[in-house]
Amino acid sequence: MPSSTEPTLFAVVMAGGSGTRFWPLSRRHRPKQLLPFADGRSLLLATVERLLPLVPAERLLVVTGGAIAAAVAQDLPTLPTANVLAEPEGRDTAACIGWVAWRLAATHPDAAMLVVPADHVVPDGSALRAALAAAAALASRRPALVTIGLQPTGPEPGFGYLELGEPGEQVNSFEACPVRRFIEKPGLERARELLSSGRFRWNSGMFAWRVATIVAAVRRHLPDLAAGLDRLMEDARHLGEAAALARHYPTLPRTSIDFGVMEKADEVWAIPVDFSWSDVGSWPGLAEVLPRLDEGSVLGDVLAIDASSCVLVSDGPLVAAVGVRDLVVVATRDAVLVVPREQAQRVKEVVERLRAAGREELL
Q: Environment class of residue 341 by beta-carbon count within 10 Å: exposed (0-12), middle (13-18) or buried (19+)?
């Protein structure tokens, strides 16, 4: 139990993404976070299991889309059904986080919040929990917005970066650092320059703060969002939450918590870490977490002969690959994807073409 000076800790898992980069395996009814990419478990379930030793199930909330809320609840049988919160539609991370913060402010105004994405892979759960506990402790002792700064393993142009100041506070076994600035997706050459300075970490998208601190920050930096959440909560008291969400949530401003709040806030700190991590952001990224064989990385019913550096996935039919290299091949019951590894980010173009053509049954 927390001491009289230690706030009650909640954890919020953001699980509303669509995962279009993992088509055709990822669909609207089973997006990336529900796929069995974590040793046969879904990424979402693995995330929740990593958090449970730190935060009990009754204080662990999952925010997801209404269309997959039932599937999410089924994937998490140890979580109270009421703890699966369904957005009527996705409005990006600021609205998601703001909604939960406003809800908690009404019932646990002195609480602290952890916020983590549902679709990351962290093999060392104890290391992650130690970092999150340190972040929560720092957020509890000062009115700061705290993030986890990951040690880069290379110049990744598609990630966000944090420039850290000198260590300013000891928290548990970590040296917390103030964040000087955020740099979003800098491009390859700029990413190389950032890493060469030694001052930058990857922005993990994992956060800690007191409820009162994030509410105040949203009110200051995103006043339109704050006003919309005020109206939502007021109507929820009179009409019920479902009706209030249907009326107000689709009108909330669409922006990320990084751009809308973190990059503008005065007191932002980071807990630097160096554990292994992957955001599994694409089919080649999946290769980082699947077993590596001579032919590359495979999942499902796959036969590879004289293949190398491939990502081969089957969700039903046998995939046989002979004499090929540097390919992504994914087969489901109704679609097959074949793309060079270096062009795997273009999978989103397939989804866009299918949507434009009205092929809703494939989305």
A: middle
Which residues contact residue 328 at a Cβ distance below 8 angstroms, ignoring those fewer than 6 apart? Answer: 283, 284, 310, 311, 337, 338, 339, 340, 341, 344
Residues 354 and 286: their CA atoms lie apart, in Å, by 23
**Cα(337)–Cα(350) distance, rounded to whole angstroms?**
9
Is 92 strand, coil or helix? helix
CA dihedral 219, 86, 116, 100 (to 10 degrees): 30
Q: Does domain 9-273 have CATH number 1.10.10.60?
A: no
Sign of CA dihedral 330, 65, 50, 258: positive
**Rounded-to-5 percentages of helix, strand, coil across the chain:** 40, 30, 35
| 15 close to 75: Cβ distance less than 8 angstroms | no
Along the 363 residues of the chain, how does pLDDT read in single tens digits?
A: 344 468 999 999 999 877 788 999 999 899 999 998 888 899 999 999 999 999 999 999 999 999 999 999 999 999 999 999 999 999 999 999 999 999 999 999 999 999 999 999 999 999 999 999 999 999 999 999 999 999 999 998 888 999 999 998 899 999 999 999 999 888 889 999 998 888 999 999 999 999 999 999 999 999 999 999 999 999 999 999 999 999 999 999 999 999 999 999 999 999 999 999 988 888 988 887 776 666 678 889 999 999 999 999 999 999 999 999 999 999 999 999 999 999 998 999 999 999 999 999 999
Question: What residues does each domain of the chain span?
Answer: 9-273, 283-362
Strands 327-331 and 336-340: antiparallel
